[in-house]
Specification:
Length: about 350
């Protein structure tokens, strides 16, 4: 969608489309920042605009329902152990050790800057914004429109005043929308809220809001560390060496949330998106006790039809010794109890590791 946005912008008016673009990060050169743009650990990016245009003209997408109903859940205010509710797409409520964490918020009908440049919603969110429990932290893996809906984030901030944690440069982007005080993390940096330590970790993806800010801000995956076990949230990522690096550094998490789409065509999406088979491969590397798929079932992303990503996942899991996955639908939850834990009350305190220099 972002490459298509760039093509449409160029055809219409490059200057006009730059209004969708956000500010750039300015900081020290590193192994993933060249002074102007961030980049992945290994080569491989999404195809260029012409490749996307050819796909759009010749594609034969499989069927999706115009709109499918889904029951809305009402999560408990706090959970002493671990409970995860799939809201939709990559928006997940993670209730862990008394802290309520929300990821990559989107509640809108369109994932895009304007209605004619976005993906249409096919299923409602599984939790209404007004039914969310008190939100302590919002994690933003990157700035693509299906992972960061500004209107939804503004509502959540107004209702809950959460801590916002995202990649380098994201605080400056959010400030342009009146959302101030976000914590920027580099890869391998951490911050904490209450007893939960939040690590910003590598992913294989990219960032872009418009035609003029390609990879101007950093994309992350996240690890939530607690004494009762870790939760890994992959955000949006292709397969890469970062998965083994994370496993080597932190050991097996209690739970991993892994994207399983878009799956087709792989030549278009494969470099920066796991499909269901690669998600199983990633789960083997991470070694999580349990895995939940995300990034499916709400927006038609590639040529796969509704339900195909889940079916491909189930087929991949037929191999002997496959990792354990639980497929949730919007509004459904997965939980693990904490022995001897007591419910928390109120907003927990926050601390941070040293921030990387830049702005």
């Amino acid at each position: 969608m972002m490459r298509l946005l760039a093509l449409l912008c160029a055809a219409a008016s490059a200057a006009g489309c730059c209004e969708f673009s956000g500010p750039r990060w300015h900081g020290r050169v590193s192994d993933h920042f060249d002074g102007a743009k961030f980049h992945n650990q290994v080569p491989g990016v999404a195809p260029g605009a012409l490749t996307v245009a050819r796909w759009q003209l010749a594609r034969h997408p499989h069927a999706w329902p115009a709109f499918a109903a889904a029951a809305a859940a009402r999560p408990a205010p706090r959970e002493p152990g671990l409970r995860v509710t799939l809201v939709n797409h990559a928006t997940v409520l993670i209730q862990i050790a008394g802290v309520n964490v929300l990821t990559d918020p989107i509640w809108g009908e369109i994932a895009g800057p304007v209605p004619f440049l976005g993906r249409k919603r096919h299923r409602p969110p599984g939790v209404r914004i007004e039914d969310l429990p008190p939100i302590d932290v919002v994690l933003i893996s990157h700035d693509h429109y299906d992972h960061l809906e500004i209107a939804a984030l503004q509502r959540i901030v107004a209702l809950h005043h959460p801590r916002i944690v995202a990649g380098l440069g994201m605080a400056k982007l959010l400030a342009t929308y009146g959302i101030h005080g976000a914590t920027d993390l580099d890869w391998w940096r951490w911050t904490s809220v209450g007893s939960v330590q939040i690590w910003g970790l590598p992913a294989r993806h990219g960032c872009r809001r418009g035609a003029c800010d390609d990879d101007a801000r950093l994309w992350l995956s996240f690890l939530l560390r607690t004494s009762g076990g870790d939760v890994y949230f992959a955000g949006d990522t292709g397969y890469g060496p970062h998965l083994q690096q994370i496993a080597d550094r932190f050991g097996p998490p209690r739970l991993a949330l892994l994207p399983i789409g878009p799956g087709a065509p792989r030549e278009l999406f494969g470099a920066v998106h796991l499909d269901a088979r690669e998600a199983v491969r990633a789960a083997r590397v991470l070694g999580a006790a349990d895995n939940l798929p995300i990034h499916f079932g709400t927006f038609a992303q590639g040529d796969e039809g509704d339900g195909e990503a889940e079916r491909t996942l189930r087929e991949a899991l037929l191999q002997p010794g496959s990792p354990r996955f639980t497929v949730l639908q919007n509004g459904e939850s997965w939980g693990a109890a904490a022995e001897g834990a007591q419910p928390a009350s109120g907003a927990p305190p926050a601390t941070s590791s040293p921030a990387a220099g830049g702005s």
